[in-house]
Structures are given as structure tokens and as C-alpha cells.
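Protocol step 4 of 5: obtain the predicted structure for the target chain.
Materials: sequence only (see below). No template structures provided, no constraints applied. The aim of this step is simply to have a reference model before the mutagenesis design in step 5. Sequence pasted as it appears in the construct record:
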Amino acid sequence: MATERQKRIARALTALIPRAPFIDAEAIREAARSRHMRPLSPDRAIWLAAISHIRHAHTDYDELMDDGYDRDAARFFVLDDINAVLDRWGATRRLDPDVVEDNPPDDMPDTDETDQDNADD
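Step 4 output (C-alpha cells):
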């Protein structure tokens, strides 16, 4: 049985990006439930998990990092690609490079770098 937080995360995902493919939606939900996301609201956890997932799974971000670009430069270069995916998935918002809240705090790891402890919360 799903916890109340898991239900809120599922509702937030459906509201934010209603046309996300199932496999991507599952990865985003799992990341949003991770331990380091627990202090965040479900909406914020879903948003950060979605952006991180899209960045790593649907853009050249990792290749740019491997080529020696720093994090900020690599994120700048994939911004339009992230927004294109958000548009295809029917997202209710887009990534804005000028809005600090679109990015996780510097001490918060990307969702794909978190521990595997996604215990039911």
C-alpha cells in the first residue's frame, strides 16, 4: 500500500508532466522518493527529479561533462533540450536558467547519484 507521500508524489507528477512516458515517469517517481528528497514538498521533489532525469537520460549533459565542461556550462548547453522534452511531455512549466529554485541546492546530489535506499516513506 502506498504511503500518503507516495500518493502526493504520484499526483504531483501527473499534474506537472502528464504525458511523461511510463518508464521515465517511474524513474522520476523513484528519484523523488529518495532519502535526500524527503525534506522537500512532493511538487518540488518531482520537479527536481524530472529535471535531473531528463538532463541525464535525454540530453548530452553527461558527454559534455566528460568532455571537460563544468556543471554550469553543461547545464546551459542542454537547457533547450530539457525544455523540448518538457514540452513533449506536456509539462506545465519550463526550466528557466534565471530562476534559482529550478536548481537543487549545491549540497544536494543529482537524483541519479543518490543512495539506493528508497524505502517507503
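Step 4 remarks: The first helix runs from residue 4 to 16. Residues 111-121 have pLDDT under 50 and may be disordered.
Proceed to step 5.
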